Protein: Peptide/nickel transport system ATP-binding protein
Amino acid sequence: MTDEPATTTDVTGTERAATGATPEDGDVTGAQVAGTAGPDDGTSRSGDGAAGGDDVLVTVEGLEVHFPIKRGIVLERTVGYVYAVDGVDLTIRRGETYGLVGESGCGKTTLGRGLLRLVEPTGGRVVFDDIDVSTLKGERLRKSRRRMQMIFQDPLSSLDPRQSVESILIEGMRAHGLDSGKESTRARLVELLDSVGLPESALHKYPHEFSGGQRQRIGIARALAVEPDLIVADEPVSALDVSVQAQVLNLLEELQQRLGLTYLVIAHDLAVVRHISDRIGVMYLGSLVEEASSDEMYAEPMHPYTKALLSAVPVPDPTVEDEREQILLTGDLPSPANPPTGCRFHTRCPWKQETLCDTDRPQLRDVGGGHRVACHYAEDILAGRITSHEVEPELVHPDS
Ligand SMILES: Nc1ncnc2c1ncn2[C@@H]1O[C@H](COP(=O)(O)OP(=O)(O)OP(=O)(O)O)[C@@H](O)[C@H]1O
Structure:
């Protein structure tokens, strides 16, 4: 099959099918979503009424996933742990998109997998729609899994190359007793493909016959096949061409509105997260360091790590002067097998306060309106104990 239609992105990020590109070539049907915004347009969705209400679908409490480090061939013994997720508390509201960001290795994927119990948490709990899924076993666990699906970064490696699209889609339906007879199952498969913008003819093709964007559409259709409530999307567009990224993000948004889905979107690209998320959580070395609505996170970041991440994102309009505070992160991400004492960020923090930050681990505290931050410095500023001016020389400005 050919690639998806080429797109153009105008200055506001509005995606359009390029002139002459039909939906094409039969590959992407007319059901494909008309873009409203691209991933790099500098806009976010909070405040546009798309956010879920206060109805909580997922509660994560003190979640821990510690992987044992084993040594020895004959007598294997545990010599330490990778603290991949180390005490995360968060809630995801029904119908919202929660964006999770942070550097590679900070534990985003493990958190998503721990939430779905694709990896066993070593501590804490996950409550999904009032059911504590951390303790579920057997049939009840299987049933809860139907309601929580995952889509992956690399659709090619997550789709079995030996299975046709029909077989890929039917597998999950069958496992959950959702294939209810030949005719209705066939109609459902066609409906699923249409909902992700693929034609019926795709059913008998194999993953390698599709472009990257089309394969991601198949991954989305596979997740939708079992009628989930929550989808954890792990870097859903980072393996795709920029022109295709907006199409897939728009598709996810359209499906959310139509089907009432709730998303946890994991991404390292802050432009992607901003566009699609109602709220954003920033992770550093296994913990959340800040959480806020998408608009507030971009307008008023408080944690120095968040400020550093955001100052690395280019401004969408190159003609506008970038007046943001620039913070450059120094040093590497410490190993999650040997995290620093106290605040885990203190080894790279321009605002580190001696003894306090390297001994006392700050807790995530609500600083108003659901904006949560785990930082002694931010707390001191808010309490009026210090002003940001006192530490300004430590910050790296673009001209320095
Ligand atoms: N099965 C495992 N066994 C041991 N360590 C693991 C395992 N899975 C992940 N890790 C480690 O846990 C830490 C967090 O990994 P994770 O993949 O969750 O991070 P991430 O933020 O999603 O990074 P990326 O964006 O690169 O995927 C890393 O140090 C990783 O090497």
